[in-house]
């Protein structure tokens, strides 16, 4: 029996340079260049990155950015095949942010182009697989964020939302498809309210995520269905015993919703030709936590209330 060694050596040499250019007090440019050589791939990559920011007012700015990034294939791939190239991504970003009178607003639109992604022709990557760099994909979307701790006395709240449209043709995908880790819509709402007479901070948070793709072998197609959406309403209560001592209670998923992360199917069909399935769910639908926080500092006034 011949012993097979799945190892590799990859020495990488790199250099990076960055410069800041101020055209005026309102307009600035940051440019960078990364040069990298991989001994394993015998490949030299050049990655330019640049961002341009303009202050639209004393409290706001808009910026655009471009970046080119390279990433080596995963070690679990390289241990079987080294005749590959680095994977490449190009980022295009447009950003606006405002910070004024206790209010913060951020909006960002982006597009990412993926090239030279690793593909293989077996169910799992192993020594029998044939590998290449013919994979590709994209991701485009928007991120929105709003926070306000001034409009209503003792109330701090923030809302974040993201939209993501992404498809990839990589790994063992037979066609370009929406990966199973992608949520098209994500929403998060967090509120904190301080009640002086109770010496307490009450918090309520809500999280939503649209369903993820999965492959149902009882239907035709690849990644042909989606899970139901994820919903989570949680509550917490922080009681200020003294300036540096806090008694904290929280409950995750107050409504006890039965969220599903995905499905696992049998390898073989039953006598009726149906693949049996099991829902992949969290270990517990609800989680309760009771804790005590004691902050020790020189001033004797610091605590963890802002972090709870």
Describe the protein:
The longest helix has 4 residues, at 75-78. A hairpin with a 2-residue loop joins strand 5 and strand 6. The protein is mostly beta strands and 308 residues long. It has 1 helix and 17 strands. The protein is globular, with a radius of gyration of 25 Å. The chain has one helix at residues 75-78; strands at 12-22, 27-38, 43-57, 60-71, 87-100, 103-120, 131-148, 155-169, 185-195, 200-209, 213-214, 225-226, 230-242, 245-252, 262-265, 277-280, 287-294. It has one domain: TonB-dependent receptor, beta-barrel domain (Maltoporin, Chain A), CATH 2.40.170. Strands 1-2-3-4-5-6-7-8-9-10-13-14-17 form a 13-stranded antiparallel beta sheet, with no helix packed on it. Strands 11-12 form a two-stranded antiparallel ribbon. Strands 15-16 form a two-stranded antiparallel ribbon.
Outline = globular
Q: Structural class given helices, strands, pairing?
A: mainly beta
The biggest beta sheet is recorded as:
13 strands, antiparallel
- Fourth CATH level, the homologous superfamily: TonB-dependent receptor, beta-barrel domain
Cα distance spanning the termini = 59 Å
Number of strands: 17
What is the CATH C-level name? Mainly Beta
Order of helices and strands: EEEEHEEEEEEEEEEEEE
User: What is the CATH third-level topology name?
Assistant: Maltoporin, Chain A
